[in-house]
Amino acid sequence: MSLAQRFAAINEQVRLACERAGRDPGQVGVLPVTKTFGHEVVRQAMALGRQRFAENRVQEMKEKALALNDSSIEWVIIGYLQTNKVKDVARYASEVQSLDRLDLAQALDKRLQQAGRRLDVLVQVKSSQEESKTGLLPEDVPAFLQDIAQYDTLNLKGFMTVAENTDDRKRIRDCFRRVRQLRDQSEDQLGWALPVLSMGMSADYELAIAEGATELRIGSALFGQRPPPQ
Hints:
The chain has about 230 residues and is α/β, with parallel strands linked by helices. The chain has one domain (about 5-225): Alanine racemase (TIM Barrel). It is built from nine helices and eight strands. The strands form two sheets. A six-stranded parallel sheet has the order 2-3-4-5-6-7. Strands 1-8 form a two-stranded parallel ribbon. Helix 6 links the parallel strand 5 (about 120-125) and strand 6 (about 155-160). Helix 4 (about 85-90) packs across helix 5 and helix 6 (about 140-150) crosses helix 7. The longest helix is centred in the last third of the chain and has 22 residues, at about 170-190. The radius of gyration is 17 Å and the shape is globular. GO terms for molecular function: pyridoxal phosphate binding. InterPro entries: Ala_racemase_N, PLP-binding_barrel, PyrdxlP_homeostasis. It holds the Pfam family Ala_racemase_N. Keywords: Pyridoxal phosphate. Belongs to the pyridoxal phosphate-binding protein YggS/PROSC family.
């Protein structure tokens, strides 16, 4: 199956999932995740009308940004972000979806002030008990939102989460529902809209749509099997 066919198939599956959930497909976007795929694959996706791509690692984002510096790509960081990587984030990224601690917010703010720019951010929420998952515990989110409100360089748009790695669909939906409810409570707390819920990946995006996701992080379902690590 070609890249164009896979994109078309995902778009149709998202449309059908929205229909089943009683939602407008226009409310749900697909964020292609290009980690481990080369910049030539990104160019192919750009030819299909895509301009926004997600990467887990800052170094990989930087390498692709330099290779594709003749384009107007918007790069989104979705992986765990170390503070020593924020210089390149402030230069190349348009959004960070894995903001999960105050020292990272402080480091981003410092670099963004130096660069004279702002950055869209999502707070990553740990919605399951899995030790391998990162993010803020739901009960820690309200205080964190108050802390980061002082940073004018950080444009808070909503929340991101990774659901539990299980075959139990109810437990997966519970993860997504928990974050949607947290978003609603946070809007009341802050007094402004948080329109983005980045929830759902290739294996569970239909469940995320049913629970209110506005953005799906899709990698292998769009680009096929990932290349082996170098």
